[in-house]
Amino acid sequence: MDNAVLEGYDASASEQSPEEQAVVQKVEHLFQAARKARRPKEGRWNENYEFYLGRQWTYRRPSYRHSEVVNLIFAAVEAIVPILTDNRPEFAFLPEDSEDRELAEALSKVADFDWSREGWDYILAEVIKSALISSGTSIGAMEFDPEQNSGLGRIIFRNVDALNIYPAPRAKDINDGTCPYFIEAEPIPVEEAKGMFPELAHMIKGSVGSGYPSKYERKDFDQTLNANSTRSNEAQDDLTSSYTQKDSKPVGESLLIKCYMQDDTMEEVKQACMDQYGNPTYTAEGVPLEEVVDTKKKYPNGRLTIVIDNLLAFDGDNPYKDGLYPYARFVDYFVPNEFWALSEVDNLKSPQRMLNRLLSFMMDTIVLMGNPIWVADIGAIDTDMVTNQPGLVVEKTPGSDVHREAGLGLPSNLFSVYELCRDAFDRIFGINELTQGARPQNVSSNVALETLQEAGQTRIRQKARNLEKFLKEIGTLYVSRVMQFYSTPRLITINQDAANVLGGEQFKFQIEESKENPGKYIATLTKREQQPDGRMMDGEKKKFETEGLFDVRTVVGSNLPYAKKSKANMAFQLFDRGVLPIRQFLKDLDYPNADKIADEAEQKAQQAAEAKAAQGG
Fold first, then answer.
1. 349, 338, 558: which is closest to 463 by C-alpha?
2. Residue 61: band (very low, low, confident or very high) from pLDDT cuts 50, 70, 90
3. What is the C-alpha to C-alpha distance for residues 212 and 214, in angstroms, rounded to an integer?
4. Per-residue pLDDT tens over the stretch 226-284
5. CA-to-CA separations, 567 to 91, 420, 423, 459, 571, in angstroms, rounded
6. CA angle at residue 398 from 392 to 402, to 5 degrees?
7. Which of 106, 126, 573, 605 has the most CB atoms less than 10 A away?
8. Residues facing 271 on adjacent strands
9. What is the pLDDT of residue 127?
10. What are φ and ψ of residue 453, in 5° steps?
11. Pairing mode, strands 90-95 and 550-555
């Protein structure tokens, strides 16, 4: 959230009770502390985003000067995202108890089903791109909305704008124990706020003045817009042309603050005082007497406080029983002992500026010095008749001199300087043409090529490890949501081919807390079987008692062109030697309808084995 959005925001007293106002003031204090700690980091985030969009000139140049942009930053970011997201990540849930192995396999299928149905590939790409472009750190949230999916509820995976995130000042990560509180603050329309909290609707007025972000205000246009879009006085950027004075008026919005915190507040556990006969005792006024027998944490799973327009909307236990904040952190280039990381754009802005300025200077030089000029004695020709028309015939006064002076070429060192800047960009970026699938011109040996390919992949492998850490944390949160909220049977379909809708495996999944054994869960798997008439009916049912403890592993496959070829070659070798089954072989090749083909091949192999056994008998 932009700092300009928060102007005028203060925690003034409301119509609520003194206790509720005290909670609001506590959250406000935490929010301001986190905001102050984040402020030195956020100054570069908007500029990074502008560079990615191609708005890279920070001042307006004269209309006759070139302000070119060769947006290599855009190309750099877009080269990384497909590599990291082309293959869907695979989740593997490893049970601590060996008896939960079949349940863990079912959980993996449920996760794959939810990932496909909800389209989380796009959310993951958004998380990755957010980190690469702006702050170097992006946040993914794994939450549960009980009202969606026809009342069954739905697990929500979303990308959280880094501008809306305020970790504790000394936090290094989210759920590693260094973050005593974590705040998400977002301005929302007043009407939306009233709909979310109808009991507070009469007090919600809109405490935040906002409209366009400050970087789009009219007074900042000269500093933020690419001068290439304003070559003449008439030309304007699309945003400028649509901007009106009416749009510049602040629009009232409500600031929604969600504060998760680890609260160590203790509360007393009381019980009724009994007399010697076991009967409760009372005061003279008839009030039952109580005695303190123990103390316990008031918020054992953590605390969630929601504030809207300085009004306390909710204050209670963390709704998620795992006791974790429902967020995970992905970083591009981590900085030791820091929550906020560095993005690709942070280090590429300097060589990008040099390339833009150098190219613009070269274009200016060509325009100013490259064109030939006419040199003539005074009165030798009618200068109004001299143009650059091809085949032009020029009549001159006898005895006078008229000729053309050739233009000057570019200095030869400009090209070497340009290549030097481009080389600096590639070295900082760390991903060259080899990483993107191109073969170097001066390399002919396959051994040397493989060595260069392996070396060129190091930066991508580091990003893949960062992504695996993020997905492991997201997977842990996902399992927790399933264990807590999938108490109603849900239909899961796997191995479903587009050409054969009923050809996939189906089962119902349900998990709920055990009433006999507190702290344990009862999971029910009901297999769905296709009947001769095509209908799907419930079949075999299995039940598991589990503690719900699973170690989450994720695999992010490398998507580099040569890595795919190497993986395919290895799959062929293992399949030829009988090590790799046909189903896994086809999946490693990303072959279409792999499961259907594998089912047919396995069925034919079984029929051949049965026929051979019958002949032998």
1. 558
2. confident
3. 6
4. 434 433 333 334 444 444 444 445 557 899 999 999 988 887 777 778 877 778 888 87
5. 19, 36, 31, 19, 6
6. 45
7. 106
8. 291
9. 96
10. -65, -45
11. antiparallel
